[in-house]
Amino acid sequence: xxxxxxxxxxxxxxEAVATFAKNHPxxxxxxxxxxxxxxxxxxxxxxxxxxxxxxxxxxxxxxSLVLEEMGAAGNPLLMMIxxxxxxxxxxxxxxxxxxxxxxxxxxxxxxxxxxxxxxxPDAGSNSHRITTTARRDGTDxxxxxxxxxxxxxxxxxxxxxxxxxxxxxxxxxxxxLFIVPRDTPGFERRQLDMELNAAEKQFELxxxxxxxxxxxxxxxxxxxxxxxxxxxxxERIMTAAFGIGMGRYALSRALEYARERTVWKTPIGAHQAxxxxxAQAHIDLELARLxxxxxxxxxxxxDDTGAGEAAxxxxxxxxxxxxxxxxxxxxxxxxxxxxxxxxxxxxxxASRVARIAxxxxxxxxxxxxxxxxxxxKSY
Length: 379
Description:
By secondary structure, the chain is α+β, with helices and mostly antiparallel strands. 48% of the residues lie in helices and 14% in strands. It has 11 helices and 8 strands. Strand 2 (133-137) and strand 3 (140-151) form a beta hairpin. Helix 3 packs parallel to helix 6. It is globular and about 80 Å long.
């Protein structure tokens, strides 16, 4: 059952992560590998992974809490969404014993990273239109296709690639997941020129008859969407936590400014034109956090269907709240909000990520329209 009150253990974890993150230089657009390793040593990166393999034995609830507090301190770690949340979860749920032994301990202790490749130039994240194909060649697999907007491939030791078996082209959807080591022949990457300033770079991937051994396949070849959404639901929950953390950070900077900045006789925060929009931003972030907590609790309880609905709603709510909080924070500071000194302007671009990735708000509205409200599809 989802509780509205956090446990003392979760409160303590929040406080510890917040203290840790605040004592480090901001990493919003700088290399954060040292921060990643230090966080891993404290158990924060692998908090959701099984204790048997060196993790904390928690769930997405704990991991999303860590990411939110890192973001609220100005130190969000985007790869937390990818490496422990998506890849670590999929491997821990569906991987072979050998895959678990090989990957989970190093994902938990931060010595290795794994990226995630689903998005394609012509399909976006629509798993029904993925054209990256996997075909058998003896006991091996051959992967061919393209991926785009894949985060952190240059720093990741491998990428979990979403492909589909060739007979899926005849109508039966069978997405499959493969671990592709970074230096595998035929696996090429090209960095995309992004306006977004972030520590994690974005890449286009080309797979040209990439040969993989049978043991590169994660899970059952015929499991299909079950395995895929075991990673995508945590991705949505973690993206929500990422957005909430960013929104809280922007709001905290605006509040500091509004309390101190005096134009007439009182600080500008005393004026309702300033105070009310900031209060509304806070309310929206708190509401988004509640839905994020619900989604995480449902996922950790094994309710994949309920978690899917809640995760989409949480991601939508957090994305909207984040963008509004950042916009209002910049507006509160006026011209100062656009200076490098106050560090808010680049969040105008960064906050859009919470609306766009990993699934757009329009597709979430489609999901809720069809799955929750029972309305007919338009496509």
